[in-house]
């Protein structure tokens, strides 16, 4: 749970530090203490927990995005209403910016499948993690494995091999980013 702002930790006196910056600093510290994958509360809840207005909470989140996210790429302006065609544009961007796309779980007609299709159209590496045949979320990966030129990914070593194979086929310098030797097991991946 996110707590109120601790003004004693702000770098400047509380009266001189903009409240959104103090909120951003407090929020950054609290996020760092959370386990990976922990979701933030809604904007309203966050504002209440930090003891600030919703506008201040939004400005604090924007500050954290500016500090930590780096590059943000979008074909639409912030605040644009989500529509079907925008999700397709998002899939195109995600595929274009990725070296590889690995579908872990996806329905047969999900957004993840759109990203995988776009990645294949762009000649990117596409992999899929097989799952239980009884699970609806395995339908997408199974369709990719059955119908498309797709790598079977069961561990990190499989992904490394797919990347190495593609680099050798294309004579790409991207292999410079990969380990100097072929990885044969997940244990070796963890050791790298």
UniProtKB/TrEMBL annotation:
Recorded GO MF terms: DNA binding; DNA-binding transcription factor activity
Origin: domain of life: Bacteria
One Pfam family it belongs to: DNA_processg_A
The HTH gntR-type domain, residue ranges: 23-82
InterPro entries: DprA, DrpA_SLOG, Tscrpt_reg_HTH_GntR, WH_DNA-bd_sf
Gene Ontology biological-process entries: DNA-mediated transformation
Keyword line: DNA-binding, Transcription, Transcription regulation
SUPFAM superfamilies: MCP/YpsA-like, Winged helix' DNA-binding domain
Entry-linked PANTHER family: PROTEIN SMF
Family affiliation: Belongs to the DprA/Smf family.
Protein name per UniProt: HTH gntR-type domain-containing protein
Organism annotation: Sediminivirga luteola
């Amino acid at each position: 749970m996110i707590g109120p702002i601790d003004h004693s930790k702000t770098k400047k006196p509380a009266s001189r530090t903009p409240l959104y910056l103090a909120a951003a600093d407090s929020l950054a510290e609290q996020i760092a203490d959370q386990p990976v994958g922990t979701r933030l509360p809604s904007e309203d809840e966050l504002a209440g927990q930090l003891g600030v207005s919703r506008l201040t909470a939004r400005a604090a989140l924007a500050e954290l995005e500016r500090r930590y996210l780096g590059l943000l790429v979008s074909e639409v302006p912030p605040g644009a209403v989500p529509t079907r065609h925008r999700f397709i544009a998002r899939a195109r961007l995600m595929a274009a910016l990725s070296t590889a796309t690995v579908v872990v779980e996806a329905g047969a007609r999900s957004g993840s499948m759109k990203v995988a299709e776009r990645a294949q159209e762009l000649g990117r590496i596409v992999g899929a993690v097989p799952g239980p045949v009884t699970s609806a979320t395995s339908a997408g990966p199974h369709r990719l494995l059955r119908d498309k030129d797709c790598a079977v990914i069961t561990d990190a070593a499989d992904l490394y091999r797919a990347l190495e194979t593609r680099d050798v086929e294309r004579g790409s310098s991207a292999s410079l980013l990969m380990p100097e030797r072929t990885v044969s097991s997940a244990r070796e991946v963890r050791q790298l």
